[in-house]
């Protein structure tokens, strides 16, 4: 049977741990949502990158005098092969850069959650040592 003084001393520790766990839970949920969003964006950018790559591959087989049109809204604009090729290269490069940024963001988010978990573990170990 525990003494009444033990309960009074244990209560602040429990409240502090409870607060730390609830903050960790909020942080983890927020981070999971951000990681899912980053994954979706990476998937979309990968699709854009593949589409631009395939289009570039198809265009490269055509002759230089072939008339090419770029779709803009509901109309098509006559463009040179070089212009379209350049636009596709820019699309691919932009998508690749954004994918790298998103991957770095995911690593950062996962690292921050791990650090928060480690801090709570240290707090638990220090409480047990007392």
From TrEMBL:
Coiled coil: 85-119
UniProt-listed InterPro entries: PFD_beta-like (IPR002777), Prefoldin (IPR009053)
Pfam families named among the record's database cross-references: Prefoldin_2 (PF01920)
GO cellular component, one term: cytoplasm
Molecular function terms, GO-annotated: protein folding chaperone; unfolded protein binding
Superkingdom field: Eukaryota
Family (UniProt): Belongs to the prefoldin subunit beta family.
Function: Binds specifically to cytosolic chaperonin (c-CPN) and transfers target proteins to it. Binds to nascent polypeptide chain and promotes folding in an environment in which there are many competing pathways for nonnative proteins.
Name of the protein described by the UniProt record: Prefoldin subunit 1
């Amino acid at each position: 049977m525990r003494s009444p003084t033990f309960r009074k001393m244990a209560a602040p520790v429990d409240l502090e741990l409870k607060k730390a766990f609830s903050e960790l839970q909020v942080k983890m949920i927020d981070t999971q949502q951000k990681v899912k969003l980053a994954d979706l964006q990476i998937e979309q950018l990968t699709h854009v990158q593949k589409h631009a790559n395939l289009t570039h591959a198809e265009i490269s087989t055509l002759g230089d005098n072939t008339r090419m049109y770029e779709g803009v809204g509901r109309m098509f604009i006559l463009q040179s092969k070089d212009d379209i090729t350049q636009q596709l290269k820019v699309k691919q490069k932009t998508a690749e850069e954004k994918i790298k940024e998103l991957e770095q963001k995911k690593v950062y988010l996962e690292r921050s959650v791990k650090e928060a978990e480690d801090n709570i573990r240290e707090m638990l170990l220090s409480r047990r040592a007392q």
